[in-house]
């Protein structure tokens, strides 16, 4: 089943929060994203049903392999696109906001071309 942009955003948020702590709860996700408790609860239910996350007895949320694969893909797109935009002179806040919009819609082909271009032109 195709995941909507909002689902990808939730998975990316869970991934980012899990890098900081093994104990991610719905309340943490809501605070990070600025979403209401009912919205987060509904989204978590859908992500559990679709096999992207699990929630244990204590309420801790973990990405499944499928969820982690998508989350890492979106996170990589976000960071690469943010860096690219900042590299051409866009301020960090705008670059991050624009990257967040683009990351969900850009094709793999175009994203891979951007990564190859950056690698080819990096000063390393």
Number of strands: 2
Task: Give the SSE string.
Answer: HHHEEHHH
What distance separates the N and C termini?
A: 40 Å
Helix content: 55-70%
**Count of spatially separate domains:** 2
Question: Approximately what portion of the residues adopt beta-strand conformation?
Answer: under 5%
Backbone CA Rg: 16 Å
Supply the CATH class of the largest domain: Mainly Alpha
Overall residue-averaged pLDDT value: 92
Strand order of the largest sheet: 1-2
Structural class of the secondary structure composition? mainly alpha
CATH architecture of the largest domain: Orthogonal Bundle
The CATH homologous superfamily name of the largest domain equals: Winged helix-like DNA-binding domain superfamily/Winged helix DNA-binding domain
Which consecutive residue ranges, at least 5 long each, have pLDDT under 50? none
- Major pleated sheet: 2 strands, antiparallel
Shape: elongated
The CATH topology of the largest domain is what?
Arc Repressor Mutant, subunit A
Count of helical stretches: 6
Comma- or semicolon-separated keywords:
elongated, 6 helices, Arc Repressor Mutant, subunit A, mainly alpha, two-stranded antiparallel sheet, Diphtheria Toxin Repressor, domain 2, 2 domains, 5% strand, 124 residues
Brief overview:
With 124 residues, this protein is mainly α. Helices cover 69% and strands 5% of the residues.
Can you characterise this structure?
With 124 residues, the protein is mainly alpha-helical. It has two domains: 65 residues, Winged helix-like DNA-binding domain superfamily/Winged helix DNA-binding domain (Arc Repressor Mutant, subunit A, Orthogonal Bundle), CATH 1.10.10.10; 50 residues, Diphtheria Toxin Repressor, domain 2, CATH 1.10.60. The chain contains six helices and two strands, in the order αααββααα. It has a two-stranded antiparallel ribbon.
């Amino acid at each position: 089943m195709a995941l909507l942009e909002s689902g990808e955003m939730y998975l990316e948020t869970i991934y980012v929060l899990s890098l900081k702590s093994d104990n991610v709860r719905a309340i943490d996700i809501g605070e990070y994203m600025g979403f209401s408790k009912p919205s987060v609860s509904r989204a978590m239910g859908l992500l559990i049903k679709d096999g992207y996350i699990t929630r244990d007895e204590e309420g801790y949320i973990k990405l499944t392999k499928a969820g982690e694969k998508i989350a890492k893909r979106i996170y990589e797109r976000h960071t690469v696109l943010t860096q690219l935009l900042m590299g051409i002179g866009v301020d960090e806040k705008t670059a991050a906001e624009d990257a967040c919009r683009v990351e969900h819609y850009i094709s793999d082909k175009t994203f891979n071309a951007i990564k190859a271009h950056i690698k080819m032109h990096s000063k390393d």
